[in-house]
């Protein structure tokens, strides 16, 4: 019976459900699994640099859950609690769910409470409960078994009661048969005794009677002897049938008890305390022999655990008491949790809620736990998980941020141990990094690399690494990068400089290169902003937008050709990005460009009327066209002046 390891006996509760923050950081990975090695240490393990193992930081005063074996230590004894990942997942699922406070839930809980009150009333009554009431209880259980939160447990309990009553009725029928057999045996015994007496009397007076009379007496004696033998056989058969019934009754009663007791025990082990209480309290009314001892294999884990905790053989009354205490303690725990949350003592509230949920997840007080309280616990729980993950990753800045947030949420939270531990790690990493820098300055490259590695193992996200690495990289690549930059400038490959991003920032060490780099980046970014805008305009605003974009690009190219900075002048002539966008825009504004080109051609050839008409046509295609407007003004002026002359 491996399932019994979640046995929630009262002395174990504090241990069974503890999903506390374990030893960190090398004890866990981000998922909560153990990552400890069997022998030696990882190459990046800070212990290889003489560090002491990190302390138990979160909830270290509570029993310690070992994720590698799924056991919990409590009072010097290890208990198996199953999959602690499952405990966490069930707890997190509970926090994410809405309170089960629907009308169907309330109706179900009211019915359960009525049944518990009813069974408590009759448990106090020494008179046995009639089968009609038991059938009524069973019918009520069947009625509520369809509620999803019940998980058909009420139906199982009802079936168990009905099965036990059926066995009792069968026993009663056989008892009545035995009563009838007893009466029949008594009659046969009387008849047999009478016939035996008659044979004895006739046998003693037979010597003084005549032949005919003697023959008649002999015949009567034979008839009595046959009847006596027949009656004796009947008596034996009736006694055998009676013995069979008695044996059947004993076997049926024992089997019914085993099934019923197993059902109640299963309810208890699965933490269905309501059902366990109901089943246990009506046990003596179903089985009226007064024997409540549970028939269990003495070598089983369940028997050893129960007797080991209580020191007594398990009984139905013991399960009733334990389940009733469980119900009371869980309700009291939920009241305490509510008070702790109201006092902003979320750490202790979280610990208690883990226990309450893992042990009493089917209890009403747990099911209706308010949504806002769940949200606050979930927020604190998530912070604790993230703190552990960050601690495992040695992300100490994040740990400090989370710790500060936890301190805001929990008035009892004490970060002294954590802050001391984190500060020590930071100081150690910074000290190793300083030693690495000094080694590089002394041209001791190997020692510098090793010290740098050690500093990264202790604190991988140390922000000082960037400045340190920049200095080292600059020292190694300063000259080649500036040389490459100057070559690209000489070849006017400005786009490549811009696209290289931060790689050329190191040229800031040279004043001339710095000015050139800033000018190139600013200009190319400005150009890209314009051409990207024109591309988008051509795509989204149709032919008119494409025409306007075409003219903007021409203006941009003209400005580029006339740029005052010689370094930047003519950049667009070789820029592939600009060429591609210009082709896209020309394709989208083809009609407008063709009409505008024809107009310019006609104007150059002196055909001003035709040019005027084409410029007007171009303006119709793109009312915002400056070239079309200017062409109209020029040709109109020429035409009017000619007419005037």
Overall mean pLDDT score? 75
End-to-end CA span: 119 Å
Largest beta sheet: what is the strand line-up?
1-2-3
**Beta fraction:** under 5%
Q: The biggest beta sheet, please?
A: 3 strands, antiparallel
Number of strands: 3
What is the H/E order?
HEEEHHHHHHHHHHHHHHHHHHHHHHHH
Helix content: over 70%
User: Which residues form runs of ≥5 with pLDDT under 50?
Assistant: 1-44, 46-82, 206-216
Radius of gyration: 49 Å
Q: Which descriptor suits the 3D outline?
A: elongated
Number of distinct helices: 25
Could you say which structural class the secondary elements and strand pairing correspond to? mainly alpha
Seen as an oligomer or otherwise, the chain set is single chain
What does this structure look like?
- The chain has 645 residues and is mostly helical.
- 71% of the residues lie in helices and 2% in strands.
- The chain contains 25 helices and three strands.
- The chain has helices at residues 13-16, 84-96, 103-124, 131-144, 153-204, 211-269, 273-281, 283-286, 301-310, 316-342, 346-360, 364-367, 371-392, 396-409, 416-441, 445-458, 464-490, 494-499, 511-540, 542-561, 571-574, 576-588, 590-604, 608-621, 626-644; strands spanning 65-66, 71-74, 77-80.
- It has a three-stranded antiparallel beta sheet with strand order 1-2-3.
- Helix 14 (396-409) packs antiparallel against helix 15 (416-441).
- The longest helix has 59 residues, at 211-269.
- It is elongated and about 175 Å long.
């Amino acid at each position: 019976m491996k399932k019994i390891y979640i046995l929630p006996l009262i002395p174990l509760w504090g241990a069974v459900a503890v999903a506390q923050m374990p030893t960190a950081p090398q004890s866990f990975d981000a998922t909560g699994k153990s990552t400890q090695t069997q022998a030696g240490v990882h190459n990046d393990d800070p212990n290889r640099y003489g560090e002491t193992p990190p302390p138990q930081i979160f909830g270290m005063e509570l029993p310690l859950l070992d994720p590698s074996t799924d056991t919990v230590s409590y009072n010097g004894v290890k208990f198996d609690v199953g999959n602690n990942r499952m405990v966490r997942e069930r707890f997190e699922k509970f926090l994410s769910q809405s309170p089960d406070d629907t009308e169907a839930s309330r109706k179900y809980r009211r019915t359960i409470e009525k049944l518990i009150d009813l069974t408590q009333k009759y448990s106090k009554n020494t008179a046995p409960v009639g089968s009609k009431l038991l059938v009524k209880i069973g019918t009520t259980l069947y009625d509520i078994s369809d509620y999803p939160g019940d998980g058909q447990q009420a139906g199982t309990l009802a079936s168990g009661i009905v099965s036990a009553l059926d066995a009792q009725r069968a026993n009663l029928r056989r008892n009545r048969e035995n009563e009838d057999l007893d009466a029949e045996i008594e009659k046969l015994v009387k008849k047999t005794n009478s016939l035996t007496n008659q044979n004895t009397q006739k046998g003693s007076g037979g010597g003084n009677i005549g032949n005919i009379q003697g023959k008649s007496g002999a015949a009567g004696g034979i008839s009595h002897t046959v009847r006596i033998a027949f009656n004796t056989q009947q008596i034996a058969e009736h006694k055998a049938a009676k013995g069979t019934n008695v044996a059947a009754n004993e076997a049926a009663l024992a089997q019914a008890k085993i099934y019923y007791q197993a059902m109640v025990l299963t309810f208890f082990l699965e933490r269905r305390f309501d059902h366990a209480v109901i089943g246990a309290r009506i046990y003596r009314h179903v089985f009226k022999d007064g024997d409540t001892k549970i028939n269990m294999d003495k070598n089983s884990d369940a028997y050893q655990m129960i007797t080991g905790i209580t020191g007594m053989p398990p009984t139905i009354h013991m399960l009733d008491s334990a389940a009733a205490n469980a119900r009371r303690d869980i309700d009291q725990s939920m009241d305490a949790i509510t008070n702790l949350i109201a006092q902003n003592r979320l750490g202790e509230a979280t610990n208690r809620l883990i226990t309450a949920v893992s042990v009493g997840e089917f209890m009403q007080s747990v099911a209706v736990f308010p949504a806002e309280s769940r949200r606050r616990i979930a927020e604190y729980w998530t912070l604790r998980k993230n703190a552990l993950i960050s601690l495992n990753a040695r992300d100490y800045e994040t740990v400090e941020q989370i710790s500060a947030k936890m301190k805001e949420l929990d008035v009892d939270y004490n970060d002294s141990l954590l802050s001391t531990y984190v500060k020590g790690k930071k100081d150690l990493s910074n000290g190793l990094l300083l030693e690495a820098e000094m080694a590089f300055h002394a041209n001791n490259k190997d020692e510098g690399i090793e010290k740098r590695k050690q500093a990264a193992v202790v604190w991988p996200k140390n922000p000082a690494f960037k400045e340190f690495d920049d200095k080292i990289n600059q020292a190694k690549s300063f000259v080649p990068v500036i040389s490459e930059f100057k070559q690209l400038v000489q070849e006017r490959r400005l786009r490549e400089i811009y696209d290289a991003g931060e790689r050329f920032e190191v040229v800031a060490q040279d004043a001339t290169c710095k000015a050139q780099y800033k000018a190139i980046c600013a200009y190319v970014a400005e150009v890209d902003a314009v051409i990207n805008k024109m591309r988008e305009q051509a795509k989204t605003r149709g032919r008119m937008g494409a025409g306007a974009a075409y003219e903007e690009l021409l203006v941009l190219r003209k400005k580029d050709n006339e740029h005052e900075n010689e370094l930047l002048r003519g950049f667009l002539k070789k820029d592939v990005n600009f060429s591609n966008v210009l082709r896209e825009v020309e394709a989208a504004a083809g009609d407008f460009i063709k009409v505008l080109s024809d107009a310019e051609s006609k104007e150059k050839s002196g055909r001003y009327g035709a040019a005027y008409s084409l410029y007007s046509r171009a303006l119709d295609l793109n009312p915002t066209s400056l070239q079309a407007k200017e062409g109209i003004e020029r040709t109109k002026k020429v035409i009017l002046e000619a007419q005037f002359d």
